[in-house]
Amino acid sequence: MSNIDPKVLRHKVENIGTLPTVPGVLKRLSGIIEKPRITLVEISAFISNDPALTTKILKMVNSAIYGFPGRIASVSHATMLLGLNVIKGLLLGVSVFELMQKTMNGLYEHSLACAIASRVIAQKKGLKEPEEISVAGLLHDIGKVILMLEFQTEYEAAMNEAQTKGISIFEAEKNQFNATHANVGSWLAEKWRFPRSLIEVIEFHHRPALAKNAPLETAIVHMADILVRARGFGFAGENYVPEVNPAAFELLKLSAADIKDVLKELEENMESAEDIS
Fold it and tell me: Measured in whole angstroms, how far is the alpha carbon of residue 152 from the centre of its chain?
């Protein structure tokens, strides 16, 4: 059993800027994301001052993930079109993905695939802001990156435990940390002033029946996560494919044809999405 106190863990996570393991780009970024009244103009300027970041954001926005292929030429156009929450999430996504590739091979691909599947399901359900759900799919496992960065030995032990006992990484994390990647991700999302719905999706993507404010959005990302694992895109820390939560399944009411469509779009889009990194 773990001797890590969740309160201490939360304090560490919330002070991510002071963690020695966190790269400079994430520290700078958390500073800008945390500003209470950040404007689209400020965030555009922040991105535009960094040519590498500009390229990555435009690549991501014009990729299959968002469904605006090749139409957006400037950061200011992207921010206006997508809005503050999506741009903040994207910024975080492209910065964290570099870490993902270093810390857990396959998590990047898993997250990209979840972003695509979440958008497709959201469109099928007629949601007005499918891009916001896509960002939630992109960031749902961000807690894993932080745990792996800051507690590599313990996180590798959790992955080994999941493997040897045939349990989910979620259960193994509880044993190692007295908390899960979903907790860690939601603490960060709260600290970074993301909307309540995004915080909830990150916190409850394994237990969607607990979502109070955003049950549909949480069910969508839950379903996307499981479809992506079942299809075998990427690696989310264990080889275990959890069952779909019955309440989420009931809420979504996806037909077999719908699921087939989602998987088809996933197949087609992942090829073009994988060259974003």
Answer: 20
Single pTM value for the model: 0.89
Q: How far apart are CA 186 and CA 196, in angstroms?
A: 10
Give me the pLDDT at residue 114, please: 94
Structure tokens that stand for 260 in this block? 């087939």
Tokens of 39: 């404007």
Return the closest-CA partner of residue 223 out of 242, 197, 199.
242
Is 184 within 8 Å of 143 (Cβ atoms)?
Answer: yes
Residue 84 burial by Cβ neighbours in a 10 Å radius (0-12, 13-18, 19+):
middle
pLDDT band for position 178 (50/70/90)? Answer: very high
Distances (CA, A) of 70 to 74, 94, 168, 199: 11, 18, 38, 30
Residues in contact with 126: Cβ distance below 8 Å, sequence separation at least 6, in sequence order: none
Instruction: Decide if pLDDT at 277 tops 60.
Output: no
Burial of 232 (0-12, 13-18, 19+ CB in 10 A): exposed
